[in-house]
Amino acid sequence: METADNLKNYLEIATEAALGAGSLLQQYYWGNLSHVEEKGRSGDLVTNADRASEAVILEIIQRHFPDHSFLAEESGQQGKAEARYLWAIDPLDGTTNYAHQYPIYAVSIGLLIAGVPQVGVIYNPAREELFRAANGLGATYNRCPMQVSSTQQLEHSLLVTGFAYDRRETQDNNYAEFCHLTNLTQGVRRSGSAALDLADVAAGRVDGYWERGISPWDIAAGIVLVEQAGGIVTAYDGSPISLEQGRIVAANPLLHQQLTQALTNTPR
Ligand code: IPD
Ligand code: CA
Ligand code: CA
Predict the structure, then answer these.
(1) Mode of pairing for the β-strands spanning 208-212 and 158-161
(2) pLDDT average, residue stretch 217-231
(3) How many CB atoms lie within 10 A of CB 241?
(4) Per-residue three-class SS string for 111-150
(5) pLDDT of residue 42
(6) Using one digit for the tens of pLDDT, what is the confidence trace for 37-69?
(7) Residue 81's closest CA among 65, 68, 63?
(8) Which of 16, 9, 27, 19 lies closest to 137 in space, CA to CA?
(9) Which of 78, 86, 87, 228 has CB atoms 3.0–4.6 Å from 139's, for a disulfide?
């Protein structure tokens, strides 16, 4: 069991890293953005800003916790994957938006302790919005407590989702689910940043989120935010979330089961 003091310490260092990386992302956004490349799969971009942001985050966290392990989107695994402390880092979530100068993107830093996400910081530098949470310590938006929405019915809800980079190569591309949920709700948005989608569920701005083909660094921090803000996060069938499986449903507790049922019952 991790002490509250330890969790607060991890949260502070993650915050320092997220704010530092966010300020760097803003500098690149307004002047230094170059080297926009595809990472292999069509549409999966990486920029010099992704790499610079990741370097800053790793430098700060490694300086404080040299024994911890890391899973960062651009540089991969450092240290043992099964280590007690594993930081899951997305230095720029929403790269496609960023590369098009569409200002919805974020830094996402999560800490898994014994395999369970327990600390999460997501920072949206364009709007200076800081979302933070740690196990048992609650969730905050710009340092004020936040909680999930209280919408009770899917037909009154606003949801958000995303489409993974393999969407052209698989029939499991979330298009059927998107149409089905669009018919059942007041709307489904696609922001282009999974981290901000989860932060928005935690802040009660949207009522639920689902996505497939997602990676641990996209969701580790957001899971902590949603759970600490009173929401529920699972796999599509309602079973416990697995970071490796890449399927996630997050919603307020009143809607969560309605959302998993609608996903399971999507007509093909
Ligand atoms: C992507 C975004 C997007 C989601 C994709 C992610 P990236 O991350 O979170 O919203 O739909 O599945 O890969 O590439 O911008 O870090
Ligand atoms: Ca991402
Ligand atoms: Ca990224």
Answers:
(1) parallel
(2) 98
(3) 18
(4) EEECCEEEEEEEEECCCCEEEEEECCCEEEECCEECCCCC
(5) 64
(6) 676 666 666 788 999 999 999 999 999 999 999
(7) 68
(8) 9
(9) 228
Clarify whether residues 141 and 15 are in a common domain. yes
Which residue is associated with the tokens 């549409």?
Answer: 43
% of the chain beyond a pLDDT of 90:
87
- How many domains, in total, are found in the chain? 2
Q: What rounded mean pLDDT belongs to the chain?
A: 94
d(CA 8, CA 16): 12
Which H helix or E strand runs over 38?
strand 37-38
The residue range of the domain holding 22 is 4-145
Dist. CA 192–CA 137, nearest whole Å:
29
Residues whose CB is less than 8 angstroms from the CB of residue 247 and which lie 6 or more positions away in sequence, other chains included: 210, 211, 212, 214, 235, 236
Classify the phi-psi angles of 131: left when phi > 0, otherwise alpha if psi is within -120 to 50, otherwise beta: beta
Question: Nearest C-alpha to atom 5 of ligand 1 is from which residue?
Answer: 164
CA–centroid distance, residue 93 to ligand 2 (Å): 4
Quickly list DSSP for 197-240.
HHHHHHTTSSSEEEEES--HHHHHHHHHHHHHTT-EEE-TTSSB
- The answer on 121 and 77 residing in a single domain is yes
Nearest ligand 1 atom to the CA of 215 is 13
Q: Is the CB of 95 inside a 6 Å radius of any atom of ligand 1?
A: yes
- Is 90 exceeded by the pLDDT of residue 104? yes
**Does 138 share its domain with 73?**
yes
